[in-house]
């Protein structure tokens, strides 16, 4: 391989006519891939000329030559042959001595003649980068036609069209290349839910497809990503589900799979994502994209849309949609997994949508686009009565019909006529709106000489436009009243009715709350009296010395069980801990004694006696447990124990309530957690807790020294209220009465301690 051979070969490729797609079939059947006869015919006039500039000066004119991409492909193939010769030591030339400036000049010629030939041949202009923009607005029509086509007459036709629909939706949502789907296996897919954020109402499902090989992988595994679309007709995940459901219904390829088959990767890893369901095709072989591209072309022809870049249609649509939605270019590039230079040169048109909005009168690019006059549409007769409308609609229909007959082409004419039709509508809208806001311009020459602007139809249309503009509040917003007349009055009436109903509901709630509270208090008093009589009866039975021992033990057990059942904290523990049993606590009857002292004579022999519940040292604390637990737990609000240490107590009953609270009283917490629950308390909290503990102990001793517990508690309550004692004052009272030991200071010297002892003696 040397310069002369390469130059002659590339010269022939540069100035030959383009081949039809697929090449020369006759030569390919004979395993001939280079047409020597065509080479001789083209190069015969240049025999004897040296390669280089002299040959280029006499180059022939070619109407449809190869493009730069084909030239670069030939160059890459020659470079591979050159590298193979270097490895075999059959060529010692450096590549720079092979690819000389004459070949570089040939390359520049191919690159520069593209635009010249395009103009000479009057090629279509609505192609390349801007054709996807024309299709973004028709995305809904494209999907609708794909869905209609999938409503076939056979399963094979239905599955094939559902497959095409899935390909377009997933390529658009994931911004992927078509070959990524044709090479994909079913085993390349996985899905998971993203962590749900606080503002998310529903969890978000993410579908991931591995792409182990592709144009830009470079040994890395890339990923296609998509999630469920807000609109079901555009959802790629739903499209995949529909395609696979119908496919599996026909093929039943996994119906006979066993657990062993699923555990053996070689039996299902190679099954492709896209397959034909004809029953003959191998589902492990890659499917060609011709069927998809042909179907997309047929569909675009029916819609009158450009038909270039068929396999990459979804990738182009996804890119342009994000760009029109003002997404950052870096995010688009990452989504499509492009090389930065490739994206900037070939995929990004850098449309400054924000600046376009501002120049159109919208200061902030984040504001919505709202233009009242665009919502008022003229009728078809008025549209066709303008000079432009007199021909544009007929011409557009005719060109579309010819495009259907010739199966393509005329893209520029179609889009130009559509542009004129849109401009025709804009003309009527702006002409009417201008007279509404600038009435003085009605004497313009245009208004006085165009027949359509003097017609009755335009006058009626101008009235519709004036009404729409009159009800507009601002250029960015319109009142609800202009869209839905009377809705504001309905809203005000509804609001008033809701307020009245809310007041009735509040009053009803208060009445129900009072009734429930009164009923609860009445039930509590009744249950208290009856249980107190029951406890007195059990006490008399226990004091009966003539009772048999077995019966006494049964009554004692019954006595203890009643106390445990009525102890709400013990009951809660029993429910949470199963068979765990606790000893009954020693509490006082203060909770119910201060609510009612009346006795019900109908409860004999269970009514309470006039004497106290404990008349001797053998009296058990279960009696007071039973009585104290008769209060209704819902009648008082439970507070955190450490928050109840600071407030000033107004009665002895409040102190006993804190200690005997069945939910989080001090006794319950000490029994459950020991000292751990108050290990983080401050010194003042610990001091308050110590004083309350001593008061509780003193009350216990005080009522045991009295014949009647009720009277004892009432006496203490009277002392507490009359003397207005604080917690510290109550401790001093019990110390003075001898029910609490006076603690000695630990910081005194021996001499001071001896003096104190002498004083006490």
Automatic annotation (TrEMBL):
Domain named Transcription activator GCR1-like: residues: 645-718
Cross-referenced Pfam families: GCR1_C, NDC10_II
Residue ranges occupied by any Ndc10 domain in the UniProt entry: 160-434
Superkingdom of origin: Eukaryota
Compositional bias per record (Polar residues), positions renumbered to this chain: 611-621
Region (Disordered): 573-621
GO MF terms held by the record: DNA binding
Record has DNA-binding as a keyword: yes
Keywords from the named record: DNA-binding
Identification of the protein by name: Centromere DNA-binding like protein
Annotated organism of origin: Nitzschia inconspicua
